[in-house]
Amino acid sequence: MRFSYALVIVNHPISAEKIQRALGKAGYQAQVITTGSRAQIQLAFTTPDLIVLDLNLPDIPGEIILRQIKAQSRLRQSQLVLLSEDAQPRIKSHDLVNLTLTKPVNAQQLGELAAHLLPI
Questions:
Q1: Residue 100's beta-bridge partner residues?
Q2: Disulfide engineering: 23 pairs with which of 28, 76, 96, 105, CB 3.0-4.6 Å?
């Protein structure tokens, strides 16, 4: 069985662990990163099938990471799920975003939704 690669960029380690397990059950090999600076490094060298991006990161706003993702043509094929505390985040990148979920996120539901985003 081939696992798809998911990059989980969230600010809370416990939530990240739950999301990582749920995505594993959905068919993803998930890597967790908890800061924007680490995300920038990882995104420079990888092309995830799925990116789960928390807009509330401790060092760099998630909106900046989102703009950087959008600027890299090789990442345009990645499925993107945003996590936000705001039900309607103030970003204008809906052409790139597959889902926006309001926190707190139910990791199991995220896994089920992500399973539908798996590449064929």
A1: 82
A2: 28
Exposure pattern of 4-25 as b/e (b: 16+ CB <10 Å)? bbbbbbbbbeebbebbbebbee
Tokens of 12: 């809370």
CATH T-level assignment (fold) for domain 4-115:
Rossmann fold (3.40.50)
Distance CA 58, CA 33 (A): 11
Helix or strand run (H / E) with residue 13: helix 13-25
What pLDDT band is residue 4 in, cutting at 50, 70 and 90?
very high
pLDDT for the residue numbered 5: 95
Separation of CA 31 from chain center? 10
